[in-house]
Specification:
A seven-stranded mixed β-sheet has the order 10-9-8-7-11-12-15, with helices on both faces. A hairpin with a 2-residue loop joins strand 1 (about 5-20) and strand 2. By secondary structure, it is of the alpha/beta class. The termini are far apart. The chain is globular and about 50 Å long. The protein has six helices and 15 strands. Helices cover about 15% and strands about 30% of the residues. It has two domains: about 5-95, Beta Barrel (Elongation Factor Tu (Ef-tu), domain 3); about 100-265, Rossmann fold (3-Layer(aba) Sandwich). The chain has helices at about 75-80, 100-105, 120-130, 155-160, 210-220, 265, and strands spanning about 5-20, 20-30, 40-45, 50-55, 65-70, 90-95, 110-115, 140-145, 165-170, 180-185, 200-205, 230, 250, 250-255, 260. Bound molecules: flavin-adenine dinucleotide and FE2/S2 (inorganic) cluster.
């Protein structure tokens, strides 16, 4: 099969997550074989509007269905977010690598997400909470502009209630500040509340590059190895399969070698903010 040839996907369900973000649950229209791993992405497209990469926000296929959570950023994302159940879009993938969950086994897991970057971490959070015995302590540190922008907030609150995972959230503007686990300020401040040895931990982070940079730098200062910090990188993409060069960072292709990289591998490249 030509890896650039799109397939057709059917919108099964759409949920509005906040003012500018929607989760679309899809299935392949032709019931083709499909499987994916958390961290990977699909190229989604609409006729005449092009394609763009979107990570999976669901953990695994359920009755052949999978979910992408999409923030309206420009014309393509706005049009995708306007689709309704029964509409068709094009899909290529899954592409890219996965979050290194195997490497995290037996260690404390620190998840740091910001804004729409919380969506690709949702499958990891769900996996870790469902398999708590495989990990040490679990920390979920999430940041957004406002309380309404905290993606999957209620879901994570329910999932962590009465379990070992520590959920801490922070917002830039905390007009309401209803709950004690929601702070005001930068997500990096939440790292001060971690009471495990960073040397025995592994971190997965996704969000604005500047956020990931400060998260990584603070963790390294706290003693974490740069190769135990995994960042999910965003670059403009065309082919998704290491043919066009659009997504290159140094000699690496974000679409094929990533999107998830050990911080130690990419911090030296001038074309990242890391
Ligand atoms: C591996 C990967 C996974 C992604 N997963 C998701 C996801 O799960 N949910 C989601 O909402 N988005 C995700 N994105 C981002 C998404 O692909 C872009 O928002 C989308 O391409 C915007 O397309 P557009 O035509 O609507 O906007 P455009 O008109 O292309 O852009 C709108 C604005 O966003 C900026 N922009 C667009 N693409 C990028 C980019 N790659 N990096 C930095 N700035 C950019 C533009 O400069 C412009 O300011 C992911 C990107 C990558 C690389
Ligand atoms: S998108 Fe073409 S090389 Fe990565």
């Amino acid at each position: 099969m030509n890896p650039l040839e799109p397939r057709r996907a059917l919108v099964r369900e759409k949920i509005q997550e906040n003012r500018e973000t929607y989760s679309l649950t899809l299935s392949l229209a032709d019931h083709d074989h499909f499987s994916y791993r958390p961290g990977q992405f699909n190229m989604l497209g609409l006729p005449g509007m092009g394609e763009a990469p979107f990570s999976f926000s669901s953990l695994h296929l359920e009755r052949g269905r999978f979910t992408h959570t999409i923030r309206e950023a420009g014309s393509l994302t706005r049009s995708i977010c306007q689709l309704a159940a029964g509409d068709i879009l094009s899909i290529r993938g899954p592409y890219g690598n996965e979050w290194p969950l195997e490497k995290a086994k037996g260690r404390h897991l620190i998840i740091v997400g910001g804004g729409i970057g919380i969506a690709p971490l949702r499958p990891v959070i769900r996996h870790a909470l469902g398999n708590g015995e495989e990990y040490g302590r679990l920390y979920f540190l999430l940041g957004a502009r406002t309380e309404d922008d905290l993606l999957f907030r209620e879901e994570f609150e329910k999932l962590t209630a009465g379990r070992d995972g520590t959920l801490l959230m922070t917002v830039d503007r905390g007009e309401k500040k209803e709950l004690s686990h929601i702070r005001e300020g930068l997500v990096t401040a939440l790292l001060d509340e971690i009471d495990v040895d960073p040397e025995e931990s592994i971190t997965f982070t996704c969000g604005p590059e500047l956020m990931m940079r400060f998260v990584a730098r603070q963790l390294i200062q706290m003693g974490q190895d740069p190769y135990d910090i995994f960042v999910s990188m965003e670059r403009r993409m065309k082919c998704g399969i290491a043919h066009c060069g659009h997504c290159q960072i140094g000699a690496m292709y974000v679409c094929k070698d990533g999107p998830i990289f050990p911080y130690g591998d990419i911090k030296r490249f001038a074309d990242t903010m890391l």
